[in-house]
Amino acid sequence: MIVMFGIFLLTLLVITAIAIVRTDNLFVAVMLMGIASLLIAANFFLLDAADVALTEAAVGAGISTVLFLGALALTSERERAKSWNRLLSFIVVAAAALILIYATFDKPRFGDPEAPVQVHVAPWYLEKTPEYIDIPNVVTAVLGSFRGYDTLGEVFVVFTAGIGVLFLLGGGKAGGAVPEEEIDEGLRHHLIPRVVGRVLIPFILLFGLYVQFHGEYGPGGGFQAGAIIAAAIILFALLEGENRALSVLPERVLLGLMACGPLLYGAVGLAGIIFGGNFLDYSVLSSNPVKGQQLGILLIEAGVGISVTGVLLGIFHAFAARDS
Amino acid sequence: MSALLDTLSWVLLTLGGLSVLIGGIGALRMPDLYTRMHAASVTDSLGAILVLGGIMLQAGWSLATIKLFAILLFLLLTSPTSSYALASAALLAGQRPFADASQDGEGPE
User: Fold this and answer.
1) Which of A131, A246, A252, B61 is most buried by its number of CB atoms within 10 A?
2) Average pLDDT over residues B18-26
3) CB nearest B84 (choices: A193, A199, A200)
């Protein structure tokens, strides 16, 4: 039954992908990409990867769509006529597709218990997580502690992406040049979205904090929570106008958040060295190694969340600032 | 008792699936944006209530039911709002509601 659902969702995904390629209306393409993200998130959920599904739904279907729409506001809605050679691009895509399909022949069957991924380190993680870290969500244990280096790298990727976009779009400069007079921006004159949005924003923020701090017990964590909190503040910016949102969280604070996340993460790692352990070894942070691990994961997840929130909001404001 | 709940929840789920299907067909077949939104709202309102109600009956008295209820509340708040925003944006963009030319003297542009 699950396999049937999976095949159904993947078929829809292929149809959506073909529709994205075939449309020359960029607005339609952005919406279809949101749908594609939602479909793949449902598929991840079917495969019991709830954490990944949550990330894909929050980032892929939520924030990316908003950022794409922000970018689309700066350009035209129609795709420009193609000038390059279509045959050449078709050959390149077909060759890549054939190689990828060929590579799948070597993969183990779906759900094969003998697959390398099931017999290599995964059993060790499953067995040792209760003993070393004692949190129910093994994904968070792997992400935060066992593979802490990788997550640190991911946070730096997010940080670098934020810096790159701000360099390209000249974020941070617009602050001084914003006109003082209150123009009627946002959806302020639309009563219904404003009222409903005002009711919902506190709950979205609360849900973001829940996802952040419940990540050790259920699906969730810094990446997802950062995206949800950023979404709440973007909703505020859309409803009340860019300037109101920037007066709540000024550009300087956002830049600070962007830097604070990786800094907090790295500082927790260095604290491990100072207390006599290895880099990113949280066991020494407390007299009880298990408590130390939990404290370390809590702190680095907070760093991830802060960094993701800052970067997403910084990118959103950088796009929105160029609107005028 | 549990058999009764099971039957009831499956009835709700089937009806919910049916209304989602009707909403989908309507969104494809209706002549213009406003009537399509009207059809699609069947999915948002009736479909969501029936399907989530069915799942709630399956979940019984547990934390999952409360979460499902929160989702339902969220959907009931957001989907009319987004429908309103969409329709109002379409009207502002100059999209006129479809009117049949034979009944209405003016007809669509």
Assistant:
1) A246
2) 93
3) A193
Residue A59's nearest CA partner among A70, A49, A67, A50 is A67
Residue type, position A290, single letter: V
Q: How many CB atoms lie within 10 A of CB A93?
A: 11
Contact B78 A190 (CB under 8 A): no
What CA–CA distance (Å, rounded) separates B33 from B27? Answer: 9
Query: Is B77–A199 a contact, with Cβ atoms under 8 angstroms apart?
Result: yes
Strands (E), B1-109: none
Q: From CA A32, how far away is CA A25, in angstroms rounded?
A: 11
In eight-state DSSP terms, residue A170 is T
pTM, to two decimals: 0.85
Cα gap A223→A55, rounded to integer Å: 7
A82 has which bridge partners? none
Give the Cα separation of A166 and A175 in Å (integer). 13
Distances in Å between the alpha carbon of A164 and those of A116, A199, A320?
37, 35, 16
Find the residue in A nearest to B70 (Cα): A203
CB B98 within 8 A of CB B49: no
Residues A93-120 pLDDT 10s: 999 999 999 998 888 887 788 888 888 8
Please tell me the distance from the alpha carbon of residue A32 to that of residue A61, in angstroms, as a whole number: 10
What contacts A266, CB < 8 A, 6 or more positions away?
A152
Alpha-carbon distance A173 to B86, whole Å? 33
What is the Cα–Cα distance from B77 to B72, expressed in whole angstroms?
A: 9
pLDDT in tens, B80-89: 888 888 888 8
Q: Quick one: pLDDT at residue A180?
A: 45
Do the beta carbons of residue A44 and residue A52 sit within 8 Å? yes
Does the beta-carbon distance from A196 to B77 stay under 8 Å? Answer: yes
